Amino acid sequence: MVIRWSAERLDQLEHAARRGLRVALETRRGTEYIVVARRVTGGVKGDAFVGLLPMTGEELTFLLEDIATFQVIGL
Fold first, then answer.
1. pLDDT higher than 70, residue 2
2. The pTM is what?
3. Beta carbons of 46 and 63 less than 8 angstroms apart
4. Domain range holding 44?
5. What is the C-alpha R_g of the chain?
6. What is the pLDDT of residues 12-44, one digit of tens each?
7. Helix or strand run (H / E) with residue 71
8. 55 in any annotated domain
9. Could you give the number of structural domains in the chain?
10. Which one, of 17, 53, 48, lies nearest residue 35 by Cα?
């Protein structure tokens, strides 16, 4: 299943990034992550969500088209 990216869903990610909230997401490959939201950005490959992996301090970039599901934690 792929998310339909409505304005409301994008607003949820942008709000999480502004507040530094945690986001639980699952990719289309089935990998699950819990990251601290950093920003939503556009690029050559398309729109993307950037989150910080708290355990390593690494920033991970997820293309929006590769995200199967997500939930903002602490809304």
1. no
2. 0.88
3. yes
4. 7-73
5. 11
6. 999 999 999 999 999 999 999 999 999 999 878
7. strand 67-73
8. yes
9. 1
10. 53
